[in-house]
Amino acid sequence: MQKHFFLETFGCQMNVVDSEQIVDLLRAIDYLPVDRPEAADLILLNTCAIRDKAERKVYGHLGRYKPLKAAKPGLILGVGGCVAQQQGEKLLKDLPYLDLVFGTHNVHRLPELVQAAESRRKRGHAVEFLDRETRLRLFPRRSGGEAVTRFVTVMQGCDNFCSYCVVPLVRGREISRPSGDILDEIRELAAAGVREVTLIGQNVNSYGVGLPGELSFARLLTEVEGIDGIARIRFTTSHPKDLSDELIDCFGSLKKLCNHIHLPVQSGSDRILRLMNRGYSRAQYLDRARRLRQARPDIRLTSDIIVGFPGETEEDFADTLHLVEEVRYADIFSFIYSPRSGTAAATLEDPSTAGERQARFDRLLKVQEEISRDWRERDAGATLEVLVEGESRQGQGQLFGRTTWNRIVNFAGSRELIGQIVPVRVGRVYRNSHLGRLIAD
Ligand code: 5AD
Ligand code: SF4
């Protein structure tokens, strides 16, 4: 009888790529995907531990699947990703209805764990970190399929140890993938019809560290620019401290590089940036933002900001607000600080109250919302180049694509346009997307 799996993915692009690999591995052992947990013989959660809220969500979902297991005794329930990495075997102890746990370095072991659970009803876990050689060998590599856009992993892990961040603990040490492999993969993707690649890593700017003689990240981008068929290049995430002049210059010289950079600032206060162990000052950040705009005048910046880091004063927070007003981000992702066990900041005292932190968060959102609206409205009435990614959820005859600034545009058009860059005149602008009309060439 055909076996089915239901996979739920939380968190960042790293997990998205890992989940793509999970799908391939499960197909290879005769499981097909379904979109309802009730229809599955295997339910997997690929989890995120970045903040407490993300972690709690995992336990919430697991609790919901528990009764399914009572109804269908053969059902296998597994957890992977960052929560699995951090909790390990403890998850199996705490949750008797769970069958398997696999960490961030152990996606390749999933088939073996599933088969052990199937045949011997044996519960298992695999959460050990791997050595460099093994990790290099196991770097996720994906085929193009039907896709127009693809993430390509250039590095994994993080060695920065920002004081609030759990990533170095759950993703392990930084490791770069040889450029030859990356470029081969992108050539294959291009041959399969992929038009846009996003080079991903926790900190792409430290690409090449530990690989002597390897290309710099800027050189790597230049090589990608030369690959026929690829029309657009993006990358994420870049750490402001390592944003080199050479990389800034790429925005002047590489036509395929999109007009967008996600450059998380986290805070506008020098005192807090030091406590966060970010390795740059407010002035250095602002200088890099200015130079990016010199290299590419219509570039749009986005950012991540943490509100309520332990000891953040009203003055520190005002510095963040002013920085946001000065940079004028197209958008920000803001988060209330969430202590993560094992990180340096987890032990810091914090005199502020939850109410104060929430009030600051709301003030920041309000300031940014006006700036975001201003950027969106600049697009209204303009004819923009849109890379068509697929049929829109809006329904029949509706397509969606993205502008170079990474905004979604919905418009009417025929399926043949998928994969092409077409001119679309933006009519209405909404909070999360634009509605436009295709302009005939
Ligand atoms: N609390 C709140 N936000 C956090 N981030 C990372 N760690 C924490 C934490 N402990 C945010 C940072 C990062 C984004 C992915 O998540 O802003 O850039
Ligand atoms: Fe976390 Fe800092 Fe590494 Fe980003 S650079 S993953 S915020 S430790």
Automatic annotation (TrEMBL):
SMART domains: Elp3 (SM00729). Its main location: cytoplasm. It is found in: Cytoplasm. HAMAP family: tRNA_metthiotr_MiaB. Residues 377-440 form the TRAM domain. Monomer. Residues 144-374 form the Radical SAM core domain. The keyword Transcription does not apply. It comes from Trichloromonas acetexigens. [4Fe-4S] cluster 1 binds at residues 12, 48, 82. This is tRNA-2-methylthio-N(6)-dimethylallyladenosine synthase.
